[in-house]
Amino acid sequence: MICAKCGALVDQTDKNTFTGRVIREYECCKCGHTDWEDDGVALWQVLHDANMEAADAAPAQPEPQSSQERPASFWQRLTGLFLRKG
Fold first, then answer.
1. Which sign, positive or negative, has the C-alpha torsion 31, 32, 33, 36?
2. What is the pLDDT along the chain (86 residues), one digit of tens a residue?
3. 7 is in which domain, residue-wise?
4. Are the beta carbons of 71 and 77 closer than 8 angstroms?
5. β-strand 10-16 against 34-41: which pairing, if any?
6. Largest alpha-carbon pair distance within the chain?
7. Is residue 20 part of a domain?
8. For residue 59, what pLDDT is reported?
């Protein structure tokens, strides 16, 4: 980016995305002028919105009827294979 006052190159001093938009702040090393630009929607905001839409569109998963039908941990499932009779 170029300084609007003196035409020198400016350095990026800050980048904020916490509002859901990418805001970059710049400062001119030559004259000290500061400026900012809005680069649009932040990537994390786009991904968050897409995940929320997918979660709303996905059908609800039914829960198991009882804890005896399916063991809670991987270890219980693994040992259950060897402990079954019959």
1. positive
2. 899 999 999 999 999 998 899 999 999 999 999 999 999 999 999 999 999 998 888 776 666 565 556 657 877 777 777 776 65
3. 1-52
4. yes
5. unpaired
6. 86
7. yes
8. 75
Residue 37 located in a structural domain? yes
Residue with tokens 């938009």: 21
Q: How many domains does the chain have?
A: 1
pLDDT of residue 86: 53
- Written as one string, the DSSP assignment of the chain is -B-TTT--BEEEEEEE-TTSEEEEEEEETTT--EEEEEEEE-HHHHHHHHHHHHHHHSPPPPPPS-TTTS-SSHHHHHHHHHH---
> Which residue carries 């059908």 as its tokens?
59
| Distance separating alpha carbons of residues 45 and 51, to the nearest angstrom | 10
